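Retro notes
What went well: the complex prediction finally ran end to end.
Inputs used:
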Amino acid sequence: MSQRPIDEGLFTGPADAPQLVGSRCDACSEVTFPRQSSCPNCTSSKTEEVLLSRRGTLWTWTVQGFPPPSPPFAGDAENFVPFGVGYIELPEGIRVESRLTENDPSKLEIGMEMELVLEKFAVGEDGDDIMTFAFQPVRS
Ligand SMILES: [Zn+2]
């Protein structure tokens, strides 16, 4: 059984040290995620791919307690497990919306350090594990 990303170009491997793929504008240095071919800030079309920091801080979060509408939700609604979602503020100055590995509100705190990991999101029709990215609290 193999693994594949939920979407090409969102993140890089290896799986134990993934990085999100964003873009940076040549003209104004605006950083975006996901990657964009033109800058949302100054509309320049000169952007370059950048790999974003693996760590950031939790800016805000909530726990998704029921399956999102399907589509676009592609997970297993029958065996749905509540999951955390939040915004992670990266050193590049952007906030990335992401799943969180933690769904226990007592273990999530605004401002805590978070680290990027990959986790299994669903199983494809071909039996492959479909991987997505998530942030987990950094254990000290
Ligand atoms: Zn720009």
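What we learned: The chain has a mean pLDDT of 91.
What to try next: split runs per interface for comparison.
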